[in-house]
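Hi C.,

You asked whether I'd gotten around to modeling the 316-residue construct. I have! Everything is below, sequence then structure, no commentary in between.
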Amino acid sequence: MNRTRTSTFSESTNGGEDFNFVETLKTTGTGINARLGLIYRVVDAVRLGASVQTPTYIHLTDTYGTTLTSQYSPPNQPNVFSTSIPGYDYSITTPFRANGGVTVLLSKYGFLTGDVEYLNYGASHFNTTDGSTDPYLDNSNAVIASGYRSVVNLRVGAEGRLDIFRVRAGYARYASPYAGTASYNRDQNYFTGGLGIRSKSFFVDVAGVYLAYKDRYSPYTLVSNEVVQPTPAPATPVVRAAPVIASDYSRFTVSVTGALLSSLSCRRPLKEPRPKQAGALLVVGGYCPSACLATRTRSCKPAVVPLGRLYTCSRP
């Protein structure tokens, strides 16, 4: 991570006087986490999966500096004053995540899939890197712990297949991370659908996503110590007004993707192994295997595999 924010304030007059104030905040950092997962095949048509992601540890350094430049005429010589505060090191730890899912294959007719995800937003926290205490970070951690909660997110989807045609549908719910929202539902709901055509020479996919959720917030809070009753006035401020703005948000997006697929003409490579299975041969190079020529075929179709390309030969 490398982020720099620069703010500039400038003034100038007709007499040639200039005033410039530049404020710079630079944040650099690195992070690390680990993700582990497994897939278990119950039967040929059913797969179970699970994964965990450790909390992400991010080490950050903030560097703040300012520069003030003034120029007057006469003598029309600039005066520059700069200051730089030593970098401040701190760290952020993001929540632990756990995920579990299931997929059911419906033979050549499609599949069903779904998964759930657990994470605790309230477990995020700031720390100093030297082990010292920082009142500002401690207060931020208290706000996070009290203002956020653990959630369970849900995602389900299905695809139906009929010859070259595809029909897809899905739903996802991302629970609100804010604590104290039991009386007001802020969950985000995604409804998805799509159509597709897949053939040997091309494919086209059309997908739509509808997002809907509700939100509520207070832009400001008016506080006053002046009260009529009781007397004397309380030691803590009394909230006089806290307007609440409620909104319903929705958005619909459509995406279209497609491509033309072409086969490669067979060309004899300099050297290739003998085919280990009928009609296919694994080749690391960029040419079709000469087995195509040996079987009097003129075209072959590549498929990407970990060690190279798997060419399936077809007769002319």
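If it helps when you're writing up: The helical segments are 135-147, 291-294.

Thanks,
B.
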